Amino acid sequence: IGPLGASRERSERPPRLRSLLPLLTGLAGLTAVRVVSRGSEVSVTTIGLLLVGSFCLTMLGLLWAGPLLTSWSARLARRGARSAAQVISLGRLAQHPRAAFRAVGGLVIAVYVVTLFAVAITAAVGTAVPAQGAGYLPTTTLYTIAGPSDPSDPSDPAAPADLETAVRRLGDVEGVETVALARMEAPRGSGGAEESEGSEDSERDKEQNRAGMRLTLSVEDARALGAGDAQSDTGWVSVSSRWLVNAAADPQPAEAPGEEPAPTVLLAGTDGGAGALERARTLMETSGLNLTMYPITRNDRTAVMATAVENQFATLGYIGILIAAGVSTASLAVSTIASLLARRRVLSLLRLVGMPRDVLRRSVAYETLLPVAGVLALGIGAAVYTAWILVTGTSSRSIGWPTGSYYAVVGACLALTGLAIVASARAAGRMVSGSAGGTVRFE
Description:
It is found in: Cell membrane. The chain contains 15 helices and 6 strands.
């Protein structure tokens, strides 16, 4: 405290290297989640607790490591200072890294959360438009899967007589042009249940088999349903089960379906009329077969995916992004103004000794800009890594580049940050020209 009661600033204690420990521990924990999730011996609860704990440590670690990174950046940039404003601002950042980072800490966390949301959202299924053309299953084709006749006995397949009856009745429906049966079988040579039973990798083998399931159907039916290049000396071809979703047919010569129990896919190609689709759908539902899924087209599947939980979460995620961006920008402005009020005496002294007002404004701008630029890149990188672990470490999905909405939000954050910096610089100019200058002159 000065002789007239004016408070004087004290240099902060330099941040210590151990400030990086929480951030490094959080990143190491996220890496452990990725490694541990590959094993089958660790429970889901343990992985979840490790993931949540590592996420919290990483986010809080950014706040803890921010002053140290700000101090390092200021000392490094001070060597190349070219103007009085840069010397003043970098000198203050080196002496008061905690106070400088405190003003931008909210923005750094907001950008971290924004990036985490935006990157994780890319793992959502999405609502891609079904591809059409040669090789693709027409969007006017209904398909469903007939399971075992007795649900309690998976080894009892659907009776051939029941399947033939359903095919004959569907062929008589007005608007139905093609009716086909396809057996869903694992690729030959992929291994049977006897090979994987009792094995540690049995579940993984089953998952790979499901992903590689193929449909065996006659060449005539395959051509009628869009696979125009299907040909085989045996009269049978197999196509990937992804053909039912959004993949082009990859017909390969195949043997006639065996006697082993396997699900049967019932397909009905229509002329596209709403009446034909509904009539065929109704007949499938009332055919007496044990259907394991509702009869749909590829367009129906797209509509269902649009209402999936992950896509609804994506919409909520963008709302959270906007809220976080707005709150962080307001926090930046308030924190910067509070910092200026605490330093009003120092700014007034600089003004009284002849420092131009523009230099003071630029000095305040540099003090706010450097912590943002120095820690922002680290926050974005940590967020991308966290999102990658969150998605790939707990599921079989992958992440992609954020959509344009993310870049628009980040651009808006930077624009609002620029406005906050300009407003703070103008506020600093007004402070040194008001009553504060007279108080310091009297002192």
